[in-house]
Design brief:
The complex is a heterodimer. Chain A folds into two domains: 8-83, Beta-grasp domain (Ubiquitin-like (UB roll)), CATH 3.10.20.30; 92-160, DNA polymerase, domain 1, CATH 1.10.150.120. Chain A has five helices and five strands; from the N terminus they run ββαβββαααα. Chain A has helices spanning 29-36, 92-99, 109-122, 128-134, 146-160; strands at residues 8-14, 17-23, 55-58, 61-64, 77-79. In chain B, 26% of the residues lie in helices and 24% in strands. In chain B, the strands form eight sheets. In chain B, strands 3-5-1-12-9-10-11 form a seven-stranded mixed sheet. Chain B has a seven-stranded mixed sheet with strand order 30-8-13-14-15-7-32. In chain B, strands 16-24-25-28 form a four-stranded mixed sheet, with helices on both faces. The longest helix of chain B is centred in the middle third of the chain and has 28 residues, at 519-546. Chain B is globular and about 85 Å long. The model of chain B is unreliable at 805-809 (pLDDT under 50). The chains are: A alpha+beta, B alpha/beta. Chains A and B meet through helix 2, helix 3, helix 4 and helix 5 of A and helix 1 and helix 17 of B.
């Protein structure tokens, strides 16, 4: 029988900063972020990969952090909602979400913001259908999604300008 | 009246925190030495607990405490009449998921592993699966209290002689409908952290919509003085009614934290949230409605049968709500309403958005469509002709204020091109209409008292800072934004300069909570009262400095100035300094209680509200006749909001309601199945996961044309009524009516799934009645009704003894 260590130590890169961290090896990236790095901006709604609330970017791609083991993230670049603003200045997505009512309770918001960021990082000329498709894995229970679509469109417009 | 803040589209005052991840939800709280709790839940829907052995769990390294029912001798329940739950089962479990024991350990993993070491011996009892089984099986009783057998509540009311009205009607329509249960599905799972403070008093942070009710109920459950307890409602990650009960886990972590002297946290997993439920009651209903040949209502008799699940929760109120609001929308001279709530071995039902009223609203509005069809009337005209009058007193003694419903109907009719499209679209495409009304706050609290429903306190000091304290709870709807907007409008301030302290029973005046669409109206009225008092103090001092009478001053854009000579002014900060010098420390309080309702009969307390909101909705549907699949390209909704406080948030409430209504219309259902007999025959939740419990995604959401109609109500702050629940109500019947227009089949049962549509189309193809829905209404032993004469027939609002009133069975 292989002995499972109580704790592993490794270094992640989180929001552009080196983040050395030690944690129990069974922990998901979601748990490492929230519990071991104190980054509670990333949320959870199921921890089964069903709701999208925990989406973060791993090397630029949106991933559900509840389905990724922390130990699989050594050396990877992780982006969370805490790293989205530039200092005190909100990212255009954050500003548009706040201005246009895309965040009601705000619980699904970090996951949708990160998913939308990955989308806008690749392309600022988006159709409504592309936006719908991109966030179809993120459940929102408050808004009915329409103000979210509009906020993403507005952010793309502001980023192009 | 010209407003500086009210009615202007704005970023909400707490908007920045919500997009930076800084909003602190309950599970985001981490405290030094914090322990974690997991609950052992019943695998059986109905069983006696013969023994529990916790020795092995308690001995496991890392485990600090194991609790069972013995540690919680006092029952609890959110309503005084339904104290029927125990934090951990007291000898009996009543649904799969009912909590039995708790483990508190150094981390969640250790606690979860220790649960497996607890040994419970059960004596399995017969299971009651639904309301009709509950009626047929008075034994075994799920609870020892209630009316009789497995009936929790049963009641009947009659306002005017309805049988006579029906007998004299040109037509009587008699329909049976069924509305399946469904759940809130907030994306945030319920979480709570309890901690003793430095003096040994308890603080509980929780995802709750009702910190005051929790505070009160927790004191009773823990047998502690309420002054020893502080409840802080964290912003909720969605509520929708699912966080309105005192929950088992809140009591358990509180007891554990006090016992261990350390913080204890719990966060339910998604499966547990499905078991916690308190959602939409499955309701079977019968509606007998009389109409004149012109299509005016003469009388209505509604009978409802609710499946309540394993505990009382808010069920006593839910039972009333399946009938009391029916007369609020249209002129209805006479009304009769029988209701019965049963106990079953399923997660308890309670308040979900619309609380008890979406079910009868669905039935009524589908039946009106049938009436229009039979009388060959336009469904929009039928409704327009009988919209209730402003200021009316309904047959059941509810006082109406403003009614913008006619304008709502006209708006959706015009914008959807209804007149050219209803009944004229190609086969497979249809358009349907429905209307509704809802409370702007329940007229009575859930426990009897004469104190205010909402209190607001304001502090201002020489720094220019204004802080507003209120017990109201932010659940996503924007209660902090409404609070800041009301105060800012009165004081002429920028709402972003106001600091809100809310939802904390140690710091804030009591507000009853975020339920019954009450916050804008009740908190808003209290806030205006407090702000006007503070304004008077500041104005008095400023007037002295500016050497004018206070009445000549205006407060606007951060200044206090002479109205006719705006160059003569003080900055708001300067004015506060003068006021603080003149009066000492500045503060003001405001409070609000709803007006007394005219109804005087027993039970008249449920239904009254300071104001009623109104909605009209038109849905376009495309029905694939080969698969039964329903696509919804567009929805038009007009909502009479009285006055819009912040259009960005108001639109969000309306569209969120439309989304949730469409979800209930098309797919959402909390359903159960029996395990095979060899596997215990237990009644288990069919789909306790987000993947299997189907809810609409971004790809399913149609285009929505949202229209805010403003018919200010004199009881409301700046005229503003509710927007968070009412707009859900017309969506389900509008969809059902659109399906009928599209393919000529009636689906009298929600959700309207492709399978049901196909079944109805098959019936149509062979010439049978193209309808899917319940065939008949069971025999329910409703009592002889409480008879109250209507206002129009000389009633005084009190019960009238009647010799000829007979029990309807």
């Amino acid at each position: 029988m292989v002995a499972i260590p109580q704790c592993v130590q490794l270094e992640l890169t989180v929001n552009g900063e080196a983040a050395p961290v030690s944690f129990a090896p069974y922990k998901t990236l979601l748990e490492v972020l929230r519990e071991d790095l104190g980054l509670t901006g990333t949320k959870h709604g199921c921890e089964l990969g069903e709701c999208g609330a925990c989406a973060v970017l791993i090397d630029g791609e949106p991933q559900l952090s509840c389905l990724v083991l922390g130990v699989a993230c050594a050396g990877k670049h992780i982006e969370t909602v805490e790293g989205l603003a530039n200092g005190a200045e909100l990212h255009p997505l954050q500003a548009a979400f706040a201005d246009l009512g895309a965040a009601q309770c705000g619980y699904c918001t970090p996951g949708i913001l990160m998913t939308a960021k990955a989308l806008l990082d690749k392309n600022l000329d988006l159709t409504r259908d592309q936006i719908k498709e991109a966030i179809s894995g993120n459940l929102c229970r408050c808004t009915g999604y329409l103000q979210i679509f509009e906020a993403i469109e507005e952010a793309a417009k502001r980023m192009k300008a | 009246m010209s407003f500086k803040v009210i009615g202007k589209p704005r970023r909400r005052v707490d908007g920045r925190a919500k997009v930076t991840g800084q909003t602190r939800f309950a599970d985001d709280i981490v405290l030094p030495r914090m322990l974690h709790c997991r609950l052992l839940r019943s695998p059986h829907p109905h069983a006696e607990i013969e023994s529990i052995d916790t020795a092995r769990a308690a001995a496991r390294p890392g485990v600090q405490l194991v609790l069972t029912g013995k540690d919680f001798p006092v029952p609890f329940g959110i309503m005084p009449v339904s104290q029927d739950e125990f934090p951990l089962a007291n000898g009996k479990v009543r649904y799969v998921g009912d909590p039995i024991a708790a483990v508190i350990a150094k981390d969640e993993q250790t606690a979860a592993e220790a649960l497996d070491l607890i040994e419970v011996k059960f004596n399995i009892l017969k299971t009651i699966a639904d309301s009709q089984e509950a009626l047929l099986n008075p034994e075994p009783r799920i609870h020892e209290y209630g009316e009789k057998g497995n009936i929790h509540r049963i009641q009947a009311y009659e306002f005017g002689d309805v049988d006579e009205a029906l007998a004299n009607s040109a037509h009587v329509f008699d329909d049976v409908f069924f509305y399946e249960g469904n759940t809130h599905l907030p994306i945030e799972q319920h979480a709570a952290v309890a901690a003793p403070d430095g003096e040994g008093k308890l603080t509980l942070w929780s995802s709750t919509q009702v910190p005051h009710y929790i505070h009160r109920a927790l004191a009773r459950a823990l047998q502690l003085p309420a002054a020893q307890i502080r409840v802080i409602a964290c912003p909720n990650g969605g509520g929708f009614g699912g966080k309105c009960d005192l929950h088992n886990h809140e009591i358990v972590v509180s007891r554990a934290a006090l016992r261990l002297g350390r913080p204890v946290k719990i966060c339910l997993n998604r499966e547990e949230v499905f078991y916690m439920h308190r959602g939409r009651h499955p309701v079977l209903m019968r509606m007998r409605t009389g109409v004149t040949k012109e299509g005016m209502l003469t009388g209505m008799h509604v009978q409802t049968l609710l499946d309540g699940g394993g505990y009382g929760s808010y069920g006593a109120a839910s039972t009333f709500y399946t009938g009391v609001l029916q007369p609020v929308t249209y002129q209805l001279p006479r009304y009769k309403f029988d209701a019965c709530r049963t106990f079953t071995n399923k997660p308890p039902c309670g308040p979900k958005r619309g609380h008890g009223t979406p079910q009868p609203r669905f039935g009524q509005e589908v039946q009106l469509d049938k009436i229009a069809e039979k009388l060959k009337l336009d469904p929009a005209e039928l409704r327009l002709n009988m919209v209730e009058k402003p200021g009316a007193l309904t047959a059941n003694w509810l006082k109406i204020g403003s009614i913008g419903l006619a304008e709502c109907i006209r708006q959706v009719v015009a914008r959807s091109d209804w007149k050219n499209r209803y009944g004229r679209l190609p086969a497979g495409r249809g358009i349907g209409l429905a209307c509704s009304s809802y409370l702007s706050g329940a007229g009575l609290p859930i426990y009897w008292n004469k104190m205010p429903h909402s209190g607001v306190q304001l502090l201002a000091d020489r720094s220019g800072q204004v802080t507003v304290f209120c017990g109201a709870t932010e659940i996503g709807q924007g209660s902090d934004d409404v609070l800041a907007a009301m105060v800012a409008e009165v004081l002429g301030m920028d709402p972003y300069d106001i600091r809100c302290v809310t939802g904390d029973t140690a710091l804030t005046p009591v507000d009853l909570g975020s339920y019954s669409s009450r916050v804008t109206v009740m908190m808003g009225n209290a806030a205006i009262q407090a702000a006007e008092k503070l304004k008077a103090q500041i104005g008095d001092a400023a007037a002295e400095q500016l050497e004018v009478l206070p009445a000549r001053l205006s407060f606007s854009q951060g200044r206090v100035f002479v109205t006719e000579n705006p160059d003569k002014f003080l900055s708001f900060k300067e004015a506060i300094e003068f006021a603080e010098a003149k009066f000492g420390t500045l503060g003001a309080v405001g409070s609000y209680s709803p007006p007394r309702s005219p109804g005087r009969y027993k039970g008249a307390g449920v239904g009254p509200s300071p104001a009623y909101s109104y909605s009209a909705c038109i849905i376009e549907a495309e029905v694939d006749q080969a698969t039964g699949w329903i696509a919804v390209p567009k929805i038009w909704i007009a909502h009479d909001i009285g006055r819009t406080v912040n259009p960005v948030l108001a639109r969000g409430q309306v569209e969120g309601s439309v989304y949730m209504g469409l979800a209930e219309a098309l797919m959402e259902e909390q359903v159960f199945r029996r395990l095979p007999p060899k596997m215990s025959h237990a009644l288990v939740h069919k789909i306790p996961s987000l993947l299997e419990y189907k809810s609409p995604t971004s790809l399913d959401m149609p285009e929505v044309d949202t229209i805010l109609v403003e018919d200010p109500d004199p009881n409301c702050p700046f005229g503003a009524k509710e927007a968070g629940q009412g707009p859900l109500l017309p969506v389900m019947p509008a969809l059902a009516n659109a399906v009928f227009d599209a393919v000529g089949v009636r689906i009298d049962e929600l959700p309207i799934t492709p399978e049901k549509v196909l079944r109805a189309l098959d019936l149509k193809a062979i010439g049978k009645t193209p309808r899917v829905g319940p065939e008949n209404f069971p025999s329910v032993p409703y009592p002889k009704p409480i008879y109250v004469a209507t206002p129009a027939e000389g009633g005084d609002g009190k019960e009238r003894k009647r010799d000829d009133a007979v029990a309807v069975v």
